[in-house]
Amino acid sequence: MIERIHTKERMSRIVKHNGTIYLCGQVCADATKDITEQTQTMLDKVEALLLEAGSDKEHMLSTTIYLKDMQDFQAMNAVWDAWVPAGFAPARACVTGDMAREALLVEISVIAAEIETK
């Protein structure tokens, strides 16, 4: 069974299938901020969606991070490293890409495992 949550015309924010959770690309809460704050608010949104979907950041399987400019790699990683629990880093790719809006500096897509309930 496929479950779609917060579905609109173009996409669903969360899709669940066979115990795997897929989040649509997440961006910051305020694109006027610098890379540090954009990264933090983006990860806050990821965490909230994972919890809503029945998962958490310790159950992330894979992430793809898109940076507008690779010069922001170190600053983004400083926030990322503080956010990901030690020993629970997912498989990850980080690439540069054009953003949907000029002011966006970072975006992430996430695949996670659902937390098993007994």
From TrEMBL:
The species this protein belongs to is Vibrio mediterranei
Mind telling me which PANTHER family this protein's record contains?
Answer: PTHR47328, RUTC FAMILY PROTEIN YOAB
What domain of life is recorded for the organism? Bacteria
From the record, what ranges are coiled-coil? none
Q: What is this protein called?
A: RidA family protein
